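Bench notes, bay 3.
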Amino acid sequence: RPGSFRPQETLPLSKALIETAFVPTNDRQRLALALYREAIGVNSIPYKFLGFFKILNVLDSGGKAQVKRISAVVPLLTDRDAEKRIGKLRAANVDIGKHLYVSGRCAVAHASASGPVVNPDNHEDTGRLALDLPLIRAIAEYLMEKELGIPRPS
């Protein structure tokens, strides 16, 4: 079920996958799983967001392609927390793909005076990213399953 890729936070994904007897068969699967484990384990909201977003890099290297993929995946998500965030962003007429890319990924990865930036000491910035976390995580999980062929632990 899309959006339900939820191993317990204390249970490493690798252990959950061992229990399901899944063995990655290619470099993209191995990289996506490594990035997912990193995102789960990092103790920073901005870097957790970026960690989940990096899973999109396994599939698409450019921003336009990533925005397009996000826009295509969003309607397919069934994760309750992701759906709540999608509803709030749509109610505010936000282009979700562009929002996650520009105000999330780029704002975390690039500290630029001329563009959006996430200041880790600014609670408004980290609060917004915290609200977006269930959405970017659900997108990453969906792509891991549907595009990379990584089965969800049962």
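Next record in the batch:
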Amino acid sequence: IWRALKHCIGELEVPSQEESHPEDLDFLTSSSLGLKALVIDNDALSSLLLKEMLIHEGIEALSVNCMLTACAHHREKSFDLIFLDPNLPDINGSATIDKLRENMQNPAPIVIVSTNSDSHLVRECAQKGVKDYIIKPIDKELLKTRIERILPHN
């Protein structure tokens, strides 16, 4: 997994198990930009890769694997950006956007990340106000460009 991760996000210093200490885990969630992102994806590897790419870009990232957990976190915290795979175990399709927005106090831009490139779903998501639609696997440079376009002031 770490090799795939390093390939996707570039050279990232990953501590070995012998070098890792609990206090070192802060670097995994710290943010130099002060931005927070929520990653909602039930695919563990995709979620981990996206989370690590975001952290590498200086964005604090929290990943969850279902809409129920996402809504609970979103009520507790505010996020600057949400990355959503619309194919979740508890809800799927464009209904994921509706459910997420129902539970949002302060709407954050939503970016769909999916293996599904179906034009009907892309159109539906756009009509619901999604800011972008990225097809997996996610390219780190494309991700960076899209984030800069969505959040230009950061």
